[in-house]
């Protein structure tokens, strides 16, 4: 027998659960007790089920209700459907040890070094089957990429985070002056403003070859300027350049703090720092796996160990 379109529309989850209880219990009274309903309510649902399936479904026997052949045929498919619905409504708990997913993250080289590297070092031990795919960061494209599922996360600043996206602050970053440990200026206990402006600088610029940045704006406010002779598109290149030249740089502290062979000084001019945030789309906000992963990233971005700096004067 077939079910008409109109009959299908009359079926709902409560009716399907009632049919399953009747098949298991073989009694309206016991099915009602199992479902927490009254006997008349279950009898009324049985009437609706009979109309929908165009079949009596149950007939009276000596020891209760006997399912018809149609009801018997429905028993196994019905159990599968209810299990699938239950899974949809209540997804299984996330198990990091066995989870197999690929996480797509957009990040700059700075965020890779300061956020992704410590995150992955912990993740591989706790969730060995999760893969990480890093994408170049295109701030204008991020909203669409997150919405389409091409990205799961983006690592941005609050100023560059588009409206309508979820975000979580990870840390506050400050700038320091860095130079190679055997640089002539590195032997002093402090770095004066005059010496800072006199030395030749390198800077990293994501916006193409530019020779001005936030440090130059800060110097201009006090009527000073520095000598920027090298502009590179990558912080990694910048660090390697410092090790082999007499150039100095102003860089985020987290980036250079663990770099070997460098000496760090606090800046002799006040340069505003920035915040780094984890950004994601509403579509993954309530996913238990993504929630676990976001929490882990926040944990791994805790305050790093303290560093020793030269003093500014």
Task: Describe this entry's structure for a reader.
The protein has 313 residues and is of the alpha/beta class. The protein is 41% helix and 22% strand. It is built from twelve helices and 14 strands. The protein has helices at 5-10, 13-25, 28-35, 39-53, 69-89, 109-126, 142-148, 193-198, 214-221, 235-244, 253-256, 288-300, and strands at residues 58-61, 64-67, 102-107, 131-136, 153-156, 166-173, 175-180, 190-191, 200-204, 227-232, 248-252, 262-265, 274-280, 311-312. The strands form four sheets. The protein has a five-stranded mixed beta sheet, with helices on one face. Strands 10-9-11-7-12 form a five-stranded mixed beta sheet. A hairpin with a 2-residue loop joins strand 1 and strand 2. The longest helix is centred in the N-terminal third of the chain and has 21 residues, at 69-89.
